[in-house]
């Protein structure tokens, strides 16, 4: 009997094991679309050209479509993958096929032919994940999905079949010697030059400006419409930088732009309204644009509405030539032609984008003979952007000159030398916050640079890093500006500063750096703060500049706050375990949105804002800490409430002040708009005579700083964050 029971028991165990393996699932946390998702599907195996491929982020199924990491898979198949941070786009090139996908957009392009996706590309756990079947087949690869084994197989096709028609020639590209003759691409058929609208001036009575609305014309375009109570006498308009300024005679501004929520659009980011004058009445509307756009202004037939339309530029002519060692690219359109430029590496190239434009040139590519240029190509990059790409020999200098309906771009020898910029990232990550970029300097043959003597000055509030080399190396590195304008770096300036050589890096985001070397090169690696530091705190001195905060007997709260945060910053820096950033280090006024932006830019783990209280009653006394009660815990288990509790108890103990406890507040901009645990600590009451006297003493503000410092140390010890 025992043997039978034992046999049955073993059989049952085997059945359980077999059943478990047949329904095997695994849990994985995915971060995309600003949220965290638990993924529990069965794993998928990737086989590329007969070999199993393991990827950092494994393949997943989303809405019945398989998504795979773009670089990991496609570069194995010999395709070239480029990521455009500005447009959140990935372009994949293989042979004569170019596929463009935009994160979270169901519209994709194969050689400019529009295709609709069931599931768009996604940025998941820092990787660009693409619908593998669509992209692989679009490039001409063979894709197979085995449901039973859950294996995706991708092989290079022998007949290069594709899902789109493609008439691109397979013949080698012709090479044009632009030092001898101009290379021109032109299509001026059916070109119509824009004629501006003429408005007749009248002299009606005063009208009320009641409304300003943004109205969608189609998926791309909008009109801005200004409505009045009656007929409008006269409208004038002008452009200053990226602002359209519209003045309306005989009008009274009744519309409050501060209460208007701007709809999501590609053109306008802000609206302001003012009453310019009275007697005569004149009102003004300012539209702040997101980029340079052509526009016109007209009056409706009944003269009760002012309509602002945005005009699409038609690009119809390109000329490329080289004379006296300067290459010149002319691009012509039907309207004023503006261009944005940025540099990419591996291979070296410069990208020129023309916003809100349509290319009549279609897709074209040519190899050229030039001192600086290998080839040039153009395409309709997306529905409203015309793109020109110049593949360069090294990293030459470029200058842009705007001329009404054309743009003139000169490419020439740079003044800097033995310096290159690398933003290729070796294909490791498509997330800007996890990438690295480098400035690479070739070591001099006759001079020695001791990298331990290189000084780094981090002017992070100005988004500037200054790298100072001891000694004059201008003969080795030259001088001048390196224009980059990618998702991280705007430009780099090389100059002699006193007896030393300075490299100034001007960024579009707050960066830090590491400096290292090998036998031939010195590398300045540019990083986001979290890539370098394991613990980051942002300290905010409340108020400042034009905002004094509470004022009692001539003493400004802003100055007490700054005295505390200055001491606190010194304590944290001297300790050396935690990286500290501040929102201000002098009597300036960063706006509340500015402070939130700094917090996000430095990637702070916690945010501590220092204030002092005031009330009508002199009896109120003590320390209190404010927090946003609707926050979630971070991966270490810390939230704003826990942070507030630790700050409050530690600071009040250090000061021996009355513990007024923590207070949840949902109405404070700083607390509800930051994504990390954030608090406001109110040290004391300036309106209480006893605390007011203490707050004027350095020993008391030093104790306050020390209390916050101890609390921050305690937080990071108890809630240790693990960086990837």
Summarize the topology.
Blueprint: H1 2-22, E1 28-32, E2 35-39, E3 45-48, E4 51-53, E5 60-62, E6 65-69, H2 70-74, E7 80-84, E8 89-94, E9 97-102, E10 107-110, E11 113-116, E12 122-124, E13 127-131, H3 132-138, E14 141-146, E15 151-156, E16 175-177, E17 183-186, E18 207-216, E19 222-228, E20 235-240, E21 243-249, E22 251-253, E23 268-277, E24 282-289, E25 294-299, E26 305-311, E27 313-323, E28 326-333, E29 340-344, E30 349-355, E31 357-359, E32 364-369, E33 373-382, E34 385-392, E35 397-403, E36 406-412, E37 419-422, E38 437-442, E39 455-459, E40 464-469, H4 474-477, E41 480-483, E42 489-497, E43 500-507, E44 512-517, E45 521-527, H5 529-532, E46 536-541, E47 551-552, E48 555-556, H6 557-575, E49 579-582, H7 592-601, E50 606-613, E51 623-627, H8 640-655, E52 659-664, H9 669-673, E53 678-685, H10 689-695, H11 698-718
Parallel strand pairs: 3-15, 16-32, 18-22, 27-31, 46-49, 46-50, 50-53, 51-52
Antiparallel strand pairs: 1-2, 3-4, 5-6, 6-13, 7-8, 8-9, 9-10, 10-11, 12-13, 14-15, 17-27, 18-19, 19-26, 20-21, 21-24, 23-24, 25-26, 27-28, 28-36, 29-30, 30-34, 32-33, 33-34, 35-36, 37-38, 38-45, 39-40, 40-43, 41-42, 42-43, 44-45, 47-48, 51-53
């Amino acid at each position: 009997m025992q043997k039978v029971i034992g046999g049955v028991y073993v059989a049952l165990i085997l059945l359980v094991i077999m059943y478990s393996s047949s329904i095997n699932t695994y849990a994985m946390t995915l971060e995309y679309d600003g949220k965290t998702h638990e993924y529990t599907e069965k794993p998928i195996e990737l086989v590329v050209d007969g070999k199993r491929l393991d990827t950092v982020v494994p393949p997943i199924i989303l809405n019945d479509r398989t998504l795979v990491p773009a670089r990991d898979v496609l570069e194995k198949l010999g395709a070239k993958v480029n990521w455009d941070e500005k447009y959140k786009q990935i372009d994949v090139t293989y042979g004569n096929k170019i596929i463009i996908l935009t994160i979270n957009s169901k519209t994709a392009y194969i050689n400019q032919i529009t295709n609709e996706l069931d599931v768009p590309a996604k940025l998941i756990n820092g990787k660009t994940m693409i619908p593998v079947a669509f992209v692989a087949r679009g490039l001409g690869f063979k894709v197979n999905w085995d449901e039973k084994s859950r294996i995706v197989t991708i092989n290079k096709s022998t007949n290069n079949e594709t899902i789109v028609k493609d008439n691109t020639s397979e013949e080698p590209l012709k090479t044009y010697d632009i030092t001898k003759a101009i290379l021109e691409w032109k299509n001026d058929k059916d070109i119509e030059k824009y004629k501006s609208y003429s408005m007749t001036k009248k002299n009606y009575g005063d009208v009320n400006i009641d409304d300003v609305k943004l109205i969608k014309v189609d998926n791309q375009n909008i009109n801005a419409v200004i409505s009045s109570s009656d007929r409008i006498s006269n409208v004038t308009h002008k452009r200053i930088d990226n602002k359209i300024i519209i003045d309306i005679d005989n009008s009274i501004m009744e519309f409050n732009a501060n209460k208007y929520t701007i709809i999501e659009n590609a053109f306008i980011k802000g609206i302001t309204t003012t009453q310019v004058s009275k007697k005569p009445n004149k009102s003004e509307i300012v539209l702040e644009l997101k980029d340079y756009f052509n526009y016109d202004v007209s009056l409706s037939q009944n003269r009760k509405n002012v309509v602002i339309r945005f005009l699409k530029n038609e690009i119809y002519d390109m000329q490329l030539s080289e004379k006296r060692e300067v290459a010149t690219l002319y691009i012509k359109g039907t309207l004023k032609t503006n261009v944005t430029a940025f540099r990419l590496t591996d291979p070296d190239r410069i990208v020129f984008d023309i916003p809100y434009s349509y290319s009549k040139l279609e897709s074209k590519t040519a190899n050229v003979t030039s001192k600086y240029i290998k080839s040039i190509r153009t395409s309709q990059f997306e529905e409203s952007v015309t793109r020109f790409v110049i593949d360069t020999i090294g990293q030459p200098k470029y200058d842009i000159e705007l001329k009404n309906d054309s743009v003139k771009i000169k490419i020439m020898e740079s003044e800097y030398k033995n310096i290159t910029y690398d933003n290729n990232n070796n294909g490791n990550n498509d997330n800007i916050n996890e990438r690295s970029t480098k400035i690479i300097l070739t070591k001099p043959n006759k001079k020695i640079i001791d990298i331990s003597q290189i000084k780094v000055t981090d002017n992070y509030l100005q988004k500037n890093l200054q790298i100072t080399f001891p000694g004059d190396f201008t003969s080795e590195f030259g001088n001048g500006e390196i224009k980059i304008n990618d998702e991280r770096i705007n430009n780099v300036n090389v100059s002699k500063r006193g007896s030393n050589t300075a490299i100034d890096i001007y960024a579009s985001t707050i960066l830090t750096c590491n400096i290292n070397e090998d036998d031939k090169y010195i590398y300045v690696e540019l990083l986001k703060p979290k890539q370098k530091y394991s613990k980051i705190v942002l300290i905010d001195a409340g108020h400042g500049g034009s905002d004094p905060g509470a004022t009692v007997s001539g003493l400004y709260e802003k100055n007490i706050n700054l005295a505390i945060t200055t001491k606190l910053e010194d304590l944290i820096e001297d300790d050396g375990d935690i990286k500290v950033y501040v929102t201000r280090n002098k009597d300036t006024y960063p706006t509340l949105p500015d402070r939130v932006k700094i917090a996000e830019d430095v990637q702070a783990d916690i945010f501590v804002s220092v204030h002092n209280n005031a009330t009508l009653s002199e009896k109120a006394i003590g320390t209190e800490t404010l927090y946003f009660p609707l926050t979630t815990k971070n991966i270490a288990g810390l939230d704003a409430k826990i942070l507030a509790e630790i700050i409050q108890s530690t600071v009040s103990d250090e000061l021996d002040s009355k513990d007024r406890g923590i207070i949840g507040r949902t109405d404070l901009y700083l607390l509800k708009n930051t994504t990390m645990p954030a608090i406001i600590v109110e040290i004391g009451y300036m309106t209480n005579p006893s605390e007011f006297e203490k707050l004027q003493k350095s020993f008391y503000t030093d104790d306050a700083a020390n209390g916050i410092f101890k609390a921050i140390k305690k937080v990071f010890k108890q809630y240790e964050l693990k960086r990837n």
